[in-house]
Amino acid sequence: MNSWAVYFIPLLAVSAVYRFSADQSLAVSVALAAGIVAFASFNRQGTLYQAFMWAAIVMAVWAVSVQRFRVSQEEKYRMMYLDQEKAASELEKKIRELEEKLQSHTITDTVTGLKNFRYFRARLEEEVARAQRKNQVFSLALMEIEDMPDFSKVYGEQETRKALARLAAKLKDAFRNTDLLCRYSDTQFMMLLTEADAKNSLVPIMRMRKNLEKTSFGPDNRFQFSYSFGISCYPYDAREAGGLLSLASASLRRSRQKGSGMITLASSLFKKGPVS
Which long-range contacts (CB under 8 A, 24 or more apart) does 42-50 make? Predict the structure, then answer.
């Protein structure tokens, strides 16, 4: 075999493997195999100097191949690690967003954006405990939209949802940030007025009722609702959440019995009529 062919053919084989194979370990194997064959051939046909020269070339190619393979593998694993870290971070973010969304839907009424009664009841228990601890008062006000069934029959579900959302926005504007509002049922809203006894709670309630009664609803802005209220107060009317809720409901029923647009205090249930 010509000396140039003995040098050139193994190197060409190694280069081809580098060019067309994604697995660089294959190039290392080809280089070693070519070196062994060439070394044995030179031992039989060539000089010892040529044999050692070829062995040195093969070892150099092998060393470069191993180093290149190691670097490429390190880069590959580094990129895989970064991709996994990015994927894990994105997955964690999505899970957190879904949890927040689920939590929000669990405690929020989707029509009005107010808290739902499940959340309100838990907060009411907390407020009772806080008021007991700090010797404070607070009031519950239950409001009913008396004409909502008639409105729904005339204008339909979509306009009803719009009216409820608009009502909720006006309720938010009428009370303090420390007060808590919730949608109690389809046609009822409940308000927790912190650090306000029954008489003090009448001021914002009556002001809100006046403003609401001036507000028109519907696509033609011609429908006006009537509103009834029932109010109970901690600790004068009841000292537990269940009792306060029951008395607020009873007060609202009394208001409805007396006519539209009435406000009844729980303390007046067995004494006087509703407050107009």
Answer: 42/6, 45/1, 46/3, 46/6, 50/3
Task: Report residue 12's pLDDT band, with 50, 70 and 90 as the boundaries.
Answer: low
How confident is the prediction for the chain on average, in pLDDT? 79
E strand segments, 104-247? 115-116, 138-145, 180-183, 188-194, 227-234
Question: Tell me, what's the pLDDT at 275?
Answer: 46
Number of Cβ within a 10 Å radius of residue 50? 18
User: Residue 20: is its pLDDT beyond 50?
Assistant: no
The CA distance from 221 to 224, in Å, is 8
| Beta-strand runs (E) in 162-261 | 180-183, 188-194, 227-234
Secondary structure (DSSP) of 112-130:
T-SEEHHHHHHHHHHHHHH
Question: CB–CB of 254/195 below 8 Å?
Answer: no
Distance between CA atoms of residues 11 and 18, nearest Å:
11
pLDDT in tens, 180-202: 999 999 999 999 999 999 889 99
